[in-house]
Amino acid sequence: xxxxxxxxxxxxxxxxxxxxxxxxxxxxxxxxxxxxxxxxxxxxxxxxxxxxxxxxxxxxxxxxxxxxxxxxxxxxxxxxxxxxxxxxxxxxxxxxxxxxxxxxxxxxxxxxxxxxxxxxxxxxxxxxxxxxxxxxxxxxxxxxxxxxxxxxxxxxxxxxxxxxxxxxxxxxxxxxxxxxxxxxxxxxxxxxxxxxxxxxxxxxxxxxxxxxxxxxxxxxxxxxxxxxxxxxxxxxxxxxxxxxxxxxxxxxxxxxxxxxxxxxxxxxxxxxxxxxxxxxxxxxxxxxxxxxxxxxxxxxxxxxxxxxxxxxxxxxxxxxxxxxxxxxxxxxxxxxxxxxxxxxxxxxxxxxxxxxxxxxxxxxxxxxxxxxxxxxxx
Length: 378
Ligand SMILES: *Cc1c(COP(=O)(O)O)cnc(C)c1O
Description:
Blueprint: H1 7-28, H2 35-48, E1 52-56, H3 59-69, E2 77-80, H4 87-94, E3 98-101, H5 116-119, E4 124-128, H6 139-149, E5 152-156, E6 164-165, E7 191-195, E8 209-213, H7 216-226, E9 230-232, E10 235-236, H8 248-257, H9 261-279, E11 292-293, E12 299-302, H10 306-315, H11 344-352, E13 353-356, H12 364-377
Parallel strand pairs: 2-3, 2-4, 4-5, 5-7
Antiparallel strand pairs: 1-8, 6-11, 7-8, 9-10, 12-13
Pyridoxal-5'-phosphate binds at residues 58-60, 84-85, 87-88, 130, 156, 158-159, 195, 197, 207, 209.
């Protein structure tokens, strides 16, 4: 059996450190916010090399709080990708704005910058690129377009903590932590929203998220909104704030895990390399863009008979998953966003993509078993 993900193994590996962190919080008597959360925020800010990190209740919260903190609201349009987890769309709607979908580039599954222009209207206020599967969207083009048209950029970096936007051709040693000087995903726009959901590359043991930003005003506004619109307890300076906070227990657990993130991402890249070697020319393997340090939140292949391949893998005891079976505009709840047939790259991708088992604790023999099982079908 090779499950797509195995979170228990990671816990067992870190058990003594995690148990000590939990014990420390339980005996402190402080459970929401407090010194563990403050320490995690500074450690994340140091890791990402940004001046401000604001933690909150989830990645979805991070997205819509950041949008509101940027001043996006009713009457505004936000350009985003149809090929994403639905939270990206929900965040735009929660902020009161309208999502405008732009098709993906089928090479990397992220927004196709050549199509931005056609989506621009006088109401466009922001672009929300998603760094899908752990590979950064073409941010240079997206940023240039945003700058030219006076738009804000919020990155959905939920799947991309530790991914980088590099100079073309920057070489990354496989299996070693990256020490290149290039900026990290989520620090390339006005703000980045991250998820700390257990399955993400840096996951808590419950829900959590955060906003990273260079902007003091976005950070300050996000902090206000996440805490009932108040800076001083029982004094509310913004209407319609939220209760969106990180638990001290989660912060303490994340503080144990953060120092391992680079090593874990390096191991993911090493596993991706094994998959590439075993599967290239047999199925369509992920395309690493020359500017990207891909951190393989998912290792996603394409196959014209995707559902049959997935069923075959299941018979062989191999887990797999489809991210995502429907693009946003074909979801029953979002049919009004765009007619079928108008976002063909996303529609085709949704029919063909299949994510294979990927986590830093996969054994080489397991990777080999997955490769052999795919090859027996392909
Ligand atoms: C996980 C995820 C989110 C939402 O994060 P939560 O912490 O689950 O709210 C948003 N966008 C993308 C692309 C994600 O993968």
